[in-house]
Amino acid sequence: MEKEERDKWLLAGKIGKEIRDLGISMCVPGAKILDIAEAIEKKTIEMGAKPSFPPNISINQIAAHYTPKFDDKTELTKGDIVKIDVGASVDGYLSDTAASVAVGEGENKLVNATKEALEAVSKMIKPGMEVHQISEVIDDVISGLGFSPIVNLGGHGVGRYSLHEGEFISNSKNYSGSFLRKEGVVAVEPFATTGGGYVIDSAEVQIYQLASIKNVRSSLGRDILKYISEEYNELPFAKRWIVTKFGRFAEIEIRNLVAAGALNEFNVLKEKDNGLVSQFEHSFLFDGETVTITTL
Ligand code: CO
């Protein structure tokens, strides 16, 4: 790998770690999740990057894909299980990292289960290895601690301007014959729950992604689409960001753009049995025989 490319992956990882830790440090009783998201975004930009995707701040039975609304009033309460899932983009070189915390409490068994699963993976992951070996480690650690791994969420390959590509690294044992890439970045993200271990789409959507540029009739719709393609490329973005830039009418335009096939939606994911959910995630850079956790 060229040094310049490697350095960008590493910087994206370092910024990812900083903003994840900032988010976790702000998870105290009474904190507004909108303030946390905005602090993460501000720090990302101050450090010279852009978000890889909107900060996901998902509480309790919500597993992923929640980012605050532009007027979000949600406050954290003691005992909430909060997942902070964030990433930085340095010229399209991305990081993706997450941590969980039990708000206002110390150690938490559910939180520790995913932390330990990720630590176990960090000790054995190698470029080009069979994907199911990683799934087995995650499943064994989480199940061994009395929780269920979430079977339909998992790790993934990461490319330039491409958050999810190639490998899918399931969190439950399987016999897939696929292999990890030998060079580049993969993200590993164990999820554990007190429920059965399956997430479903809820009706709510706060995060979108450009699908394709379409001809749309409204001039506001055209302006929004142009802005999205220039500002975010094909990386996910928050409805909040568009409403902040274009005003409240943008909400209607976003719906129209989805209907026209210009945007994809990421539904908020919730655990089917309303189980509590925890998550940890790191980005791993493979370069030759070396493995570097960019978000450590
Ligand atoms: Co990820």
Automatic annotation (TrEMBL):
Belongs to the peptidase M24A family. Its EC number is 3.4.11.18. Removes the N-terminal methionine from nascent proteins. The N-terminal methionine is often cleaved when the second residue in the primary sequence is small and uncharged (Met-Ala-, Cys, Gly, Pro, Ser, Thr, or Val). One of its GO terms (biological process) is proteolysis. It comes from the Archaea. This is Methionine aminopeptidase. It catalyses: Release of N-terminal amino acids, preferentially methionine, from peptides and arylamides. It comes from Candidatus Parvarchaeum acidiphilum ARMAN-4. GO terms for molecular function: initiator methionyl aminopeptidase activity; metal ion binding; metalloaminopeptidase activity. Binds 2 divalent metal cations per subunit. Has a high-affinity and a low affinity metal-binding site. The true nature of the physiological cofactor is under debate. The enzyme is active with cobalt, zinc, manganese or divalent iron ions. Keywords: Aminopeptidase, Hydrolase, Metal-binding, Protease. Its cofactor is Mn(2+); Fe(2+); Co(2+); Zn(2+). GO terms for cellular component: cytoplasm. The lineage of its organism: Archaea, Candidatus Parvarchaeota, Candidatus Parvarchaeum. Residues 12-201 form the Peptidase M24 domain. NCBIfam families: met_pdase_II. InterPro entries: Creatinase/aminopeptidase-like, Met_Aminopeptidase_Type2, Pept_M24, Pept_M24_MAP, Pept_M24A_MAP2, WH-like_DNA-bd_sf, WH_DNA-bd_sf. Coiled coil: none annotated.
